[in-house]
Design a protein that fits this description.
Two copies of one chain form a homodimer.
Chain A (H helix, E strand, L loop, with lengths): L2 E7 L12 E7 L7 E10 L3 H6 L19 E8 L9 E4 L6 E5 L6 E3 L16 H14 L6 E5 L4 H12 L3 E6 L2 H9 L5 E4 L6 H11 L4 E6 L4 H7 L2 E9 L17 H5 L3 E4 L9 H13 L7 E5 L4 H9 L6 E5 L2
Helix pairs in contact in A: 2-3, 2-8, 5-6
């Protein structure tokens, strides 16, 4: 049995999450039972939603248990199998968590899925052709429901969700505007991801200033907004929403550290007759096949070229995750485990 | 030609609206052109949306023009007609404004509608079987879409919208909880309007205290909320929303006087996967016939017994309106003009 290094949640953050909330632990992988599969992880996905689970608060997901391996999406290969549906060498995607190996009861529906790496690199199944890509798809297609010629805006534009959103939105004939932090990310958004414009929120000290920049980038107003951050950015975009605009609320990363961030002008929801809808993509499994098909096609044909930030080795996961929460990543944040 | 007393908007409010924003003016009604009808108003409707129109601000409706008669819904009778579709004595509902008579181009679609007063008193066409009733219907049926056994909450519970909402919600098998100001209104909500419980928000100094009262009144949480007021009440109800709850935003009366009221915990929209949607009932004319049919049936069968606050004479309209904004009315606020 190989030795398995894991990252546990050791204690909960008080305010900002810090490295000492996590603990590196070594264990032996247990012997397999019938139906189980041993997966060696190639990549671990780091995602903003994990910060929410570190709190012991009412939320959509159970809080991450203390003293247990942090949960998270993984891709890897089967190295041992007692399940007839999987054989050694299969490339698979699952929820293996922050560790080098996982033992998976592969008969549980959705626990482990074989993926084809002929045209799509394995790591992309954690990003553009995985949960983040489907997240962008659901928010855009099912909540925002864009029409040709409308203007779409997304915050955290160069992340895994933002990259996929740009390709999906452009494919629907929409003006597509990103909001990101810093000139490098904004240049990349326009040059590589296909955004029509990208606004550097770090150049703006308040919502009024950011709102002015949005007016220039969105001369016809904003019809759809995909919300990843909350706070000042949400306040600014709200002031630019057109009548009957739709806001898909996917994340409020700005408020994860404790102090709730109020929304300055909720009356705009009424005066502009907006629809604001929160969602969790894992609650809409019925749309995954359709979304993954479109996303896979966009990657295979080069219309979606997602960038990845890759940290090396399981011990690097906590720092990489804390960096992600501060926007230090550039594209999809992964940890390489081989 | 009869003399026609009118209330004009003389100047815009700075902060709170005051009586001196209005001006009483006398004029002669002009001679009728072909296709026109002269209507003598029996009742004028006073509604919270009118406060929004007094500001010169971006909103769903054009601002009320200065030096012009205040707009508003009216019921009355035809006293002169140069239109073959209307004859003297017809009872009609229209948008005659804050005045005793109006000249209506009755060929304009929707400008004037004949109504039957056999089973429904004329004034109710401005309330339960008019715009406020249809407003309750649209928010409940089209946005909240209640299911049997769910819990519905409405603020401003004893107003024209709230009364209709209670009857419509109970008819759909929902636990129905009101929020109103003062013990008399709360007792009336339960005894006369059919609410299962009613919370007196005046007993609560902050959202946390109101939230605790809501927990008692809504032991299974809140699935649908019809928002008329905003501010502290909205903050409190948000903390009690169940997963996949729906909020229909119809009014934010608490914020009309200038200072915008922030929303304290927008992240709940995400964590509870809420849908929050603003609407203006006049933009959904296609549902009016279905809604009016149900509302008329509820009134005719005594299941909806709306209460009215009636001020006498056009000169009394400004004070009655300012009282409405402060919640001094009890039931639908009208001005009797005959």
């Amino acid at each position: 049995m190989p030795t398995n290094q894991q990252i546990h949640l050791d204690n909960r953050p008080v305010g900002e999450a810090v490295a000492s909330n996590f603990k590196l632990v070594s264990s032996e992988t247990p012997a397999l039972q019938d139906g189980q599969v041993l997966v060696r992880h190639h990549y671990l996905s780091l995602d903003p939603y994990m910060r929410g689970r570190m709190n012991d608060a009412k939320s959509y997901a159970q809080p991450q248990a203390l003293g247990q391996t942090m949960g998270g999406g993984t891709v890897g290969e089967v190295v041992e199998s007692k399940n007839p549906k999987f054989e050694v060498g299969n490339t698979v995607v699952g929820m293996g968590g922050w560790q080098e190996y996982s033992v998976v009861d592969a008969n549980q529906p959705g626990a482990l899925r074989k993926v084809d790496t002929t045209h799509i690199p394995l790591s992309h199944y954690l990003g553009a052709v995985g949960m983040p890509g489907v997240t962008a798809w659901y928010g855009l297609v099912k909540i925002i429901a864009p029409q040709v010629g409308q203007t779409m805006v997304i915050s955290a534009a160069t992340g895994a969700v933002g990259s996929a959103f740009a390709a999906l939105s452009k494919a629907r004939g929409c003006r597509t505007v990103g909001i990101a932090g810093g000139p490098d990310k904004c240049k990349y958004a326009v040059d590589e991801l296909g955004f029509d414009a990208c606004i550097d929120y770090k150049l703006h000290k308040d919502a009024a200033s950011l709102s002015k920049a949005l007016k220039e980038a969105c001369p016809n107003g904003v019809d759809g907004y995909f919300e990843n951050v909350g706070g000042m950015v949400l306040d600014a975009v709200l002031t630019r929403m057109n009548a009957f605009g739709r806001i898909a609320v996917c994340g409020m990363i700005a408020g994860y550290d404790g102090l709730p961030l109020p929304l300055a002008y909720p009356a705009l929801i009424l005066t502009q007759r907006l629809k604001v809808e929160g969602f969790i993509v894992s609650e809409h499994m019925e749309i995954w096949p359709e979304a993954l098909k479109e996303l896979g096609g966009l990657v295979a044909t080069g219309k979606l070229k997602p960038r990845e930030s890759i940290a090396q080795g399981i011990a690097a996961a906590p720092e990489a995750f804390l960096g992600l929460l501060k926007g230090k990543n550039f594209g999809k944040q992964l940890v390489k485990l081989i």
